[in-house]
Amino acid sequence: MAVKLQRPILVGGIGLSLLLWLLDSVQHSVAELGGTTMLGIMVASLGVWLLKRPKSLPPQKVNMIPSPTKEAAEEAIELLATSIDQLSLGVESINKSEKISNEINQLHQQVITLTQELERQDLSIVITGNKGVGKTTLAEILKSQWISKNSRKIEVIDITWDSQWITKNENAQVNPLSPYDLILFVTTGDLIDSEFQGLSKLTTIGQRFILIWNKQDLYLPGQIPQIIQKIKETLSTINSKENLVGISARPSSIKVRKYQQDGTIQESIEERLPEISELREKLNQLLEQEREKLVWATTIRKAEMARLETKNILNKIRREQAVPIIEQYQWIAAATAFANPVPALDLLATAAINGQLIVDLSAIYEQKFSLEKGKEVAVTMAELMLKLGLVELSTKTLTTILKSNSVTFVAGGAIQAVSAAYLTRVAGISLAEYFATQTDTNYVNIEKLGKILQRVFSQAQENNLLKPFVTQVMSHILPQEEKLEVVSTPAK
Ligand SMILES: Nc1nc2c(ncn2[C@@H]2O[C@H](COP(=O)(O)OP(=O)(O)OP(=O)(O)O)[C@@H](O)[C@H]2O)c(=O)[nH]1
Ligand SMILES: [Mg+2]
Known about the structure:
CATH architecture of the largest domain: 3-Layer(aba) Sandwich
CATH class of the largest domain: Alpha Beta
Bound molecules: guanosine-5'-triphosphate, magnesium ion
CATH superfamily of the largest domain: P-loop containing nucleotide triphosphate hydrolases
Order of helices and strands: HHHHEHEHEHEHEEEHHHHHHHHHH
Structural class: alpha/beta
Distance between the termini: 37 Å
Largest sheet: 5 strands, parallel
Shape: elongated
Helix content: 55-70%
Number of strands: 7
Oligomer: single chain
Strand content: 5-15%
């Protein structure tokens, strides 16, 4: 995957660093600088900022999700209950472990908890943002200056932001921020691309946030309005213009020099108080107007996460049922090809991918293909594997492995047997993975299946599993005496 540069949206990184450095070096002696000098610095820095300012960003397309309702939350809980029922049914026929029984019990309990949570009065807030932006400082200030004065119970925690939560994960709603009602996303003014992508994604999955620009004390007052306007422009592309507030959770102290009447200079350090009034106001307003909606949205996300967990458990159980079936067909394919060697490319059509295997797997995943459909999919898969070059590649690799064992290679049909078994396995595992993600029963998404095939195939190649696999296939098809030789012949 291409690495995305951390491109600042607002201000060129260098320009801003220069500005901050400039500021840092002047702020301690601000008091003694004349008004003209200050003006000069401000004009110069603004110039740097304007010059470095990138052209406006192309508007991002964001799917806005509808405002959460209690009905939507109830529906999400119902959907969860249905999938738990499906899981319970799925394990009825098998000898389920204690672990699975516990997991199912916990899921049932979650349905009850979530239903009660629809009326929840307490609120939870998570502060996130990149390292060092002032998350912990803000959490402390909020606790002492806002939460303690609030009649409601409010929990606040802080977690460092990780953009991989949402970029690496196709189910973006499964992230550590999901269980919280509100996200306070802290930056220090320079909104970088990955932060914006994060906010954009949070919007699409219905996670409410306030973007907090902290450390405003590091900027000159004249710069702040323009920067705010620019961030708001960016936020308006995700309908979140109103979600920006500026604060200084712990402004730096400043050194003040006073000229005494006798001509001496008296220096003192002046501490500045935290400035979070805009945030407090925003939070109060949010609590007053949207508290219930925040709770419903969280309930929806939690129900959705639990539903995905339920699905994962079910798929794990199904997979455990699928593997022995795939293995069974694998040995059949090997034996058939061994007894009846055909050119490698014909393997697929004859033995490797069996329509009946597809029917059996589809039954495990509740997609019940007819034999006719199974055969049709078998042909499609065979064509796909040929097209993707998997047949050629695996034949080559397996031949190399077999050649390192002269005895087995001599045995006619060995390469066909091993290839047939291997391709059956790759096809079977891929299908199982495909079915696991599928809800639509009768349509096969070739593109998606192709991607899974390639992934399963390359995983098997990487994991060094081919050598033991070859040995396993050979021990299944060769008579007893030859088996001994296979084992004892050292690899060349
Ligand atoms: N100038 C200035 N400094 C601040 C402000 N808020 C926090 N800081 C400083 O920024 C530094 C980092 O603050 P933390 O609260 O530890 O930041 P954090 O995001 O929790 O950091 P990590 O946990 O390391 O990711 C500390 O030195 C704070 O004093 C502010 O408003 N202005
Ligand atoms: Mg911290």
